[in-house]
Amino acid sequence: MVNKEFFFRGFKSIIKPDSPALALGCCFIAIGALLKNLGFNIQESIFSTMLTYALPGSLVMAESLLVGASLLNIFLAVWFVNARLYPMAVSLFPLMMHKNQPKWKYYFSCHFIAVSAWLIMKSNYKSIPKEQRIDYWIGIGSATWSIAVIGTFIGFFSSEFLNKDLMMGLAILNPIYFLCMMVGASKTIQISLSVLLGAILGPIFYFLSPEWSILLGGVVGGTIAYFVGELNVS
Amino acid sequence: MSVNIVYAILVTSLATFLSRFLGVVSSEGIKETSKLFKWFNCLAYATLAALIARTIIFPVGVLIDASYFIRLTVVILSLIVFKLFIKKNMEK
After folding, report:
1. Quick one: closest CA in B to A97, which residue?
2. CA torsion angle for A171, A174, A177, A178 (degrees, to 10)?
């Protein structure tokens, strides 16, 4: 099954100084309160976080419900905003593939792919032997996922005490945390340029098409950064 | 609300899991030393940066009510604090 030593090493990453726990918890508190205000009951709110576990997706779902969108529209809107999970998975899972590990671990643990866990794994994978990386990943994922669920729970029951200013503060914490972590991760030309170009092109493409802006910005920015990096090496 | 909440949750999680699952299936044929992997790495970082920039510049939800000036000030201040104090501690 899962190697306990590496599982707990991963799990403990949320009490390290660069832990996403606080930022992640706070924005799921905001989500919990938002879902409550939308008319979700506690079971629905918790299940929403457990099953989706991707913040922008939950926000888009909430917005779509508010404007009365159809199920197909919700599906497409969420798929667009969460399609980033595909390149995130492809740039993470090859690092963890090992022939001695059963396939189900990979299929099941892909649910934990989210920016917070992904960033922790990216900065720590080199210190973990390849065979055990998937167990370490399951540890990180279980920890961040639990924080999200607990955050939603707290948010749901404290929504009356959260005024608009507090909600704004909670909502901006997570993008700021991610931004800092990405600046911290920008150690090579390729990554720094990817981050910079993505951040510039994403909002520019928003004027062309709000739905496609993230994907277009990512693909165009990432591809330019890749070629510039390759040219620099050779 | 016209749509049943439970269906909305199921559809949302399905749309989200799809990208994750396809990502893992594609990963099986990709070596971590390959150029394709490197390219996807750039794509992932750029897409994330695009998403974060969008969340801050064109937000969905409560952040709409915070002015551009306030959002920008928060971002710049946080980056300064991060650069000055936190990054050094992390590298120790």
Report:
1. B28
2. -130
Strand, coil or helix: B11:
helix
From chain B, the residues in CB contact with A79 under 8 A are 15-16, 18-19
Q: Decide: helix, strand or coil at residue A96.
A: coil
To probe the interface with A, which of B38, B62, B83 has the most A CB atoms within 10 Å?
B62
Subunit contact A214:B71, Cβ cutoff 8 A: no
Give the CA distances from residue A34 to residues A153, A169, A231, B65, B81, in Å, rounded to whole numbers and listed in that order.
12, 14, 47, 15, 30
Number of independent structural domains in chain B: 3
| Chain A: closest CA distance from residue B25 (Å) | 8
A22 touches chain B (CB under 8 A): no
Q: How far apart are CA A48 and CA A57, in angstroms?
A: 10
Answer whether A166 touches B (CB < 8 Å): no
Residue-level length of chain A: 234
Q: How far apart are alpha carbons A175 and A181 in whole angstroms?
A: 10
pLDDT digits (tens, 9 = 90+) for A64-109: 888 888 999 999 999 988 999 999 999 999 999 998 999 999 999 9
**Distances, alpha carbon B43 to alpha carbons A110, A233, B30, B37, in Å:** 18, 19, 15, 10
Cα of A225 to nearest chain B Cα, Å: 7
**Interface contact flag, B16 A64, Cβ < 8 Å:** no
Q: For chain A, what is the mean pLDDT?
A: 91
Closest residue of chain A to B22, computed from CA coordinates:
A86
The pTM assigned to this predicted structure is 0.90
Same domain, B22 and B3: yes
- The ipTM, to two decimals, is 0.90
Task: Quote the domain boundaries for residue B69.
Answer: 62-92
Do B77 and B92 belong to one domain? yes
**Exposed / middle / buried, residue A204 (Cβ in 10 Å: 0-12, 13-18, 19+):** middle
